[in-house]
Write a structure and sequence with these properties.
With about 350 residues, the chain is an alpha/beta fold. It folds into two domains: about 5-45 and about 165-195 and about 235-340, Rossmann fold; about 60-160 and about 200-230, no CATH class. It has 13 helices and eleven strands. The protein has helices spanning about 5-10, 25-30, 45-55, 65-75, 80-90, 95-110, 120-130, 175, 200, 205-210, 240-250, 270-280, 325-340, and strands at about 15-20, 35-40, 165-170, 185-190, 215, 220-225, 255-260, 285-290, 295, 300-305, 320-325. The strands form two sheets. Strands 1, 2, 3, 4, 7, 8, 9, 10 and 11 form a nine-stranded mixed beta sheet that branches. Strands 5-6 form a two-stranded antiparallel ribbon. Helix 6 (about 95-110) runs antiparallel to helix 7. The longest helix has 17 residues, at about 95-110. The N and C termini lie close together (about 5 Å). Residues about 310-315 and about 340-345 have low confidence and may be disordered. Bound molecules: S-adenosylmethionine (SAM). S-adenosylmethionine (SAM) binds near residues 20, 21 and 190.
Length: about 350
Amino acid sequence: MGVLGAIATAAEAKTAVDLFTGTTRVAQEFKSNGLEVIASDVATYSDILAKCYIETDANEVDLIEIKSKIDYLNQLPGFRGYVTEHFCEDARFFQPKNGLKIDAIREELEKNFKSDKDFSILLTSLMLAADKVDSTTGQHMAYLKKWSHRAGNDIELKVPDLIPGKGKSILGLAEEVVAGLPAVDLFYMDPPYNQHRYFTNYHIWETLVRWDKPPVYGIAMKRLDSRSPQTHSVFNKRKLMPAAFKDVIIKAKCETLVVSYNDESWVEPIDIAEAIFEAGHESVALLEFDYKRYIGSQIGIYNKAGTKVGVKGKRLNKELIFVAGDTSRVEAIEAMVAGRGIEPRT
Ligand SMILES: C[S@@+](CC[C@H](N)C(=O)[O-])C[C@H]1O[C@@H](n2cnc3c(N)ncnc32)[C@H](O)[C@@H]1O
């Protein structure tokens, strides 16, 4: 179990929100620990992942039927379409043999599986399979000069590891979604902290999910609508991010709030702690990890009247997680994490 799963256990949480869920891996960790989870993000690929891993109850699907749909998709003959043209010929994200298959499978999903109950599972399966044969270092801002080793493998869709339990996906802007969310035991948030945009970093997933075949530009064949203000997040804007972040913290209705902190952030830890107090939490601890081991508490536990010992201006090179709530709960969580020597990431 990773630290976030351990925190959920120490918080005795039964319900959780993962705002800015991205890959949904944290939401998956919560759900695997028995929590009912709401996962939310503005990215359409994240919504599909959340529909597959968080909304789908593994106990309620017919795995044999899903497997036979995946077998069917795997044997489709490839053909040259949008992916082959832009991501294999104009750019070199995939080898053409795999681009042809991706085109054929995605087109088939669009034509004949769009209203299938397993659509999100099948599309997730395609995303994961494509991810395994791409020629990048993980993001889509660039492809490797020389083909990656894995790019030479043949793409193969597999049934994703579904998780039993309840959950929900909400596609939308955090700053709009947050107010409508129910009160939960545990609220986790991991927003972007700087100018790096997920919309462009993962543009191929966005396109594969939307299947809107947009015009592209640049060496990485990014979506032309990356330039449009509608696709820009307030969390990637230096001037607007701190206030938006504070607002989301204040509106998160929960017993325990957990915030991942990035040391390349535009916001100082002390400002986040202040927003947490303003949200009404009694105590906050900033847990610090180095080399994936818990090494202590940056600002310790302070109640609203306590001295605010900040780390302003200090360059941190660590993984940090804020934990906020009632003092006894924050202490219990900190003790549990300290006692386990567990990893900060799931
Ligand atoms: C640091 S990542 C989260 C990573 C995630 N915890 C994971 O494990 O994959 C930030 C996420 O915020 C999302 N995002 C950016 N701006 C947003 C906004 N205004 N509303 C909702 N989500 C946003 C991005 O799409 C991205 O998935």
